[in-house]
Amino acid sequence: MIRCALFDLDGTLVDTLVDLGRACDYVLERYGRKARWSESDYRRFVGNGARKLIDRAFEHTLNEEELDEALVIFKEKYNEILIDNAAIYDGVKEQLDLLRQKGIKLGIVTNKPHHSAVLMAEALFGKGYFDCIYGARKDVPIKPDPYQLKLAIDGFGCKPSEAIYFGDSDIDVFTARNAGVEAIACSWGYRSFECLMAASPSAIIDEPKYIFKLF
């Protein structure tokens, strides 16, 4: 029996690509670099946290100190424009509402900076809509390390066999597998079907309407 559903955020529940790209372009310009990346480029860059996003946008040319500074600038800018263009994917909210009505606990486990994840979830879904939110924090391992996914499941008083994790990337599939959790890949996000298939998830769904059908 499945008692809790955990979700990635960017590319799974919410389309955030435009604003992530805008914030990254801002950082590039602050460093005197040309903002030349397309939406397709940023689609490839996201998924491993903000620090890795910046590193990829700068083509791995920043040293560790510069990367730390760029990350601070990115977070400040991104939080300013956090929900300018962000939108819940069509059909997602309706499916989550059905899960809540069924008594399923809902949580977010994301590599998005924790503060940004909380602000976004509360702005778009409402405060307290999710039973827990775990984002990237200093000195806490990020996905595909299963640490935060396990924390969320333990916090619900559930076993891994009583949880499902939904995500749009191979990283999410690996995270679920590392935690001993059923992995459902969502093909409407930022990774190709081929990338998801290669990660060998339990299933791939191509529309949010299939979320509730898994319970």
Determine the structural class based on helices, strands and strand pairing: alpha/beta
Oligomer: single chain
Helix content: 40-55%
How far is the N terminus from the C terminus? 8 Å
Mean pLDDT: 96
- SS summary, helix count: 9
Structural shape: globular
Rg: 17 Å
Biggest sheet layout: 6 strands, parallel
Beta-strand level of the residues, as a percent range? 15-25%
- The count of β-strands is 8
The neighbouring-strand order within the major sheet is 5-4-1-6-7-8
Order of helices and strands: EEHHHHEHEHEHEHEHE
Stretches where pLDDT is under 50 for at least 5 consecutive residues are none
Layout: helices, strands, pairs:
Layout: E1 4-7, E2 14-15, H1 17-30, H2 39-45, H3 50-57, H4 64-80, E3 87-88, H5 92-101, E4 105-113, H6 114-125, E5 132-136, H7 147-155, E6 163-167, H8 170-179, E7 182-186, H9 193-198, E8 203-205
Helix pairs in contact: 1-4, 3-4
Structure report:
The protein has 215 residues and is of the alpha/beta class. It is 43% helix and 16% strand. The chain contains 9 helices and 8 strands. The protein has a 6-stranded parallel β-sheet with strand order 5-4-1-6-7-8. It has a two-stranded antiparallel ribbon with strand order 2-3. Helix 6 links the parallel strand 4 and strand 5. Helix 1 crosses helix 4 and helix 3 packs across helix 4. The longest helix is centred in the middle third of the chain and has 17 residues. The radius of gyration is 17 Å and the shape is globular. The chain starts with a strand and ends in a 10-residue tail after the last strand.
